[in-house]
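can u do me a favor
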């Protein structure tokens, strides 16, 4: 087991008592969570404005879905190399670097807004903002003792609330100027990058891998648990991402909401997932995280069935969507509690990159499927039933197989 798992480290020469986390752990947790939230806001900048882009550029439902899904795809795949690079170079370098580089595509959204091809290209670059998840997990994991890792990683996971921030604030800021949201986010990223360069610190006992990037990714890929966790995370976090980027479109199309109202409702969905993620981690510190995952996915599966019958939004649809958000948020927190328990510290970044990538890819496919189904069937029911089937399969697998994993890894 890694050094951080044996005791809770403090500054060199002054370790914290066993089972406790030093002040530096909480400073890094706060900085990682803020950075995660800001880069996720940037990553999701296109989705809240997708209705406007659809009208301006004359896009079909599938073209609109593809536009919002491109950053998700690139951000997901990008977590694989970024996680491995974090193992090698540390979060102190990677957090400010990735945050600063994300400013470029955010600003490029301004000149690209009148061309679909240009928007796709910028969306590709914007995917960089979605990679910071693979930086924060190994950083937080290294600073906290095993008994507190589930909750700490859940708190870090609240940074995915950047999707909620984007859904709520982006269209409102845009009411004061089409380009203003991009300028605000770019400025926030610049300030954060400068602060992160000073305040983010790697664990003093961090083990730096000496082998190549390809070898480290290969070793992580050969672990069975990597792919088991990837499948569960693709359902839990993938569902969150899918709804984060597509829910405004769904609400506007099916329930005839305005872009601002749809963005507000979508932000409420995302907020529930954010709040429940640390709850999933906290529960996983107390009972086996596989049991938490199984129960949470069961709730999501049942609520997806309810929504498949296309109920009125008030109150049945709202209750179903919020309960689904609670299930998906809890599952996304509990799955990474499993990652922290069964992965050696030097490989956490590499495994996190792969698992995070699969989770993001789980968010890439549903918007495309939903858009394609609606274009051909004029209904979203099939899409919700597919989500229910996947969530139920994850529920059964987590209970039948994953609960046999040792809690101490």
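np, heres the sequence
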């Amino acid at each position: 087991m890694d050094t951080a798992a044996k005791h809770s480290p403090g500054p060199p020469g002054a370790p914290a008592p066993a089972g406790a986390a030093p002040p530096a752990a909480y400073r890094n947790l706060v900085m990682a969570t803020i950075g995660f939230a800001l880069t996720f806001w940037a990553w999701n900048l296109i989705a809240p404005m997708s209705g406007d882009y659809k009208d301006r550029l004359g896009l079909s439902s599938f073209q609109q879905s593809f536009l919002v899904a491109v950053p998700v795809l690139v951000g997901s795949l990008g977590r694989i190399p970024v996680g491995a690079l974090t193992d090698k170079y540390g979060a102190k370098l990677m957090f400010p670097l990735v945050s600063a580089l994300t400013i470029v595509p955010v600003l490029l959204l301004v000149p690209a807004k009148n061309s679909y091809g240009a928007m796709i290209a910028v969306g590709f670059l914007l995917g960089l903002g979605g990679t910071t998840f693979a930086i924060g997990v190994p950083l937080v994991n290294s600073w906290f003792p095993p008994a507190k890792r589930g909750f700490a990683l859940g708190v870090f996971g609240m940074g995915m609330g950047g999707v909620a921030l984007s859904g709520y604030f982006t269209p409102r800021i845009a009411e004061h100027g089409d380009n203003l949201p991009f300028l605000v986010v770019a400025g926030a990223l610049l300030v954060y990058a400068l602060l992160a360069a000073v305040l983010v610190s790697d664990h003093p006992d961090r083990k730096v891998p000496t082998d190549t990037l390809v070898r480290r990714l290969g070793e992580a890929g050969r672990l069975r648990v990597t792919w088991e966790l990837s499948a569960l995370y693709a359902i839990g976090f993938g569902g969150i991402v899918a709804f984060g980027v597509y829910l405004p479109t769904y609400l506007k199309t099916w329930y005839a909401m305005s872009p601002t109202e749809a963005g507000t409702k979508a932000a409420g969905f995302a907020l529930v997932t954010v709040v429940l993620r640390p709850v999933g981690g906290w529960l996983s510190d107390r009972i086996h995280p596989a049991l938490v995952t199984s129960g949470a996915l069961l709730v999501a599966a049942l609520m997806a069935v309810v929504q498949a019958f296309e109920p009125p939004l008030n109150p049945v649809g709202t209750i179903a969507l919020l309960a689904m958000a609670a299930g998906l948020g809890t599952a996304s927190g509990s799955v990474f509690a499993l990652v922290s328990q069964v992965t050696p510290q030097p490989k956490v970044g590499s495994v996190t990159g792969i698992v995070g990538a699969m989770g993001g890819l789980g968010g890439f496919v549903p918007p495309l499927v939903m858009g394609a189904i609606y274009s051909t069937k004029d209904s979203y029911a099939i899409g919700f039933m597919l989500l229910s089937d996947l969530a139920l399969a994850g529920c059964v697998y987590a209970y039948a197989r994953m609960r046999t994993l040792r809690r101490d890894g």
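The chain has 17 helices and no strands. hope that helps!!
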